[in-house]
Design goal:
The protein is α/β, with parallel strands linked by helices and 290 residues long. The chain is built from 11 helices and 13 strands. Residues 195-200 have low confidence and may be disordered.
Length: 290
């Protein structure tokens, strides 16, 4: 049997509601990789946030992080980390745009190793949504001196993404137009804070990335790195940022608990959700039939 490569998201996919990989999933995945197949994370988390799960499963594969803006291989010291950072001149065009500032309540900036914020969110729904989408755990910030503010003279690491939480009365289309007028070379995504929608005054989150920084492009790199064909490539995901890679291959599964959009493009839906080992049980059914 040809070597297979599995790309799996973490939150809402491989991880359960407690942000853990169950012992059952661990057992099945270790049996799968013991057959010589590859399993790779493709996640919005940083490598620091993904590493405990990587070690738990005993992986030795490439790990896609920051929604495709960073590619690592923690098991190979000779592997050179790959990043797709944003040009800082472009960043400061956006950062210094008064109209964008006037319509933005929170700026969150992800670099290679840090998260910077203009102020710590106080609203529970905003903190929960940012933690779900981007794994920003603001509850870990104990006091003001721990807040990381990004200044022009801060050159410690490159910018991988900008997250703008717009004010409740801000117009999404106006902000899109402003960003496009400053640069037409960024990948722009948006989400609702409270699922009221973008036309019913729902508060909106905008994420900006390098135009090449997405999960599908990173997946293609890793697929080529391991010399595995599309026919032997399997994908699991649950969210909007998984849609492109779910739609690319015939061997794709949206989680039973996935967003409507993800389910609509996945070639299949797992029988079990992320709280009941949906990824692992699908792999067991496909490659380890009883």
């Amino acid at each position: 049997m040809n070597k297979k490569i599995v790309f799996t998201d973490l939150d809402g996919t491989l991880l359960n509601i407690d942000k853990k990989i169950s012992s059952e999933s661990e057992r099945i995945i270790k049996a799968f990789t013991a057959q010589g197949h590859y399993l790779c994370f493709v996640t919005g988390r940083s490598i620091e946030d993904a590493l405990p799960y990587y070690k738990q499963l005993g992986l030795d594969t490439v790990c896609i992080c920051n929604n495709g803006a960073a590619i690592h291989n923690p098991s190979d010291k000779e592997f050179t980390d790959i990043f797709f950072p944003m040009n800082k001149t472009v960043f400061f065009k956006i950062w210094n745009c008064k109209e964008i500032q006037d319509n933005t309540e929170y700026f969150v900036i992800k670099t290679k190793r840090h998260t910077f914020v203009n102020k710590i969110p106080t609203e529970k729904k905003i903190k929960e949504r940012l933690n779900t989408l981007f794994h920003f755990d603001f509850d870990k910030i104990k006091n003001k001196k721990d807040t990381l503010i990004y200044y022009r003279n801060d050159r410690r690491s490159d910018i991988l993404s900008i997250v703008l939480i717009l004010k409740p009365n801000a117009n999404l289309h106006t902000i899109y137009y402003l960003i496009k007028s400053l640069t037409n070379n960024l990948l722009i995504s948006h989400w609702s804070i409270d699922n009221r929608g973008f036309d019913q005054n729902g508060q909106v989150i905008i994420e900006l990335n390098h135009n090449f920084a997405n999960k599908l492009n990173a997946l293609k790199f890793v697929q080529s790195y391991y010399d595995v064909l599309w026919a032997d490539t399997y994908v699991f995901g649950d969210g909007e940022n998984d849609v492109a890679m779910l739609s690319k291959t015939e061997n794709s599964w949206a989680m039973k608990n996935a967003s409507t959009h993800a389910i609509s493009v996945g070639r299949g839906v797992t029988k079990f959700d992320s709280n009941h080992d949906g990824v692992a049980k699908t792999l067991e059914e496909l490659f380890m039939p009883k």
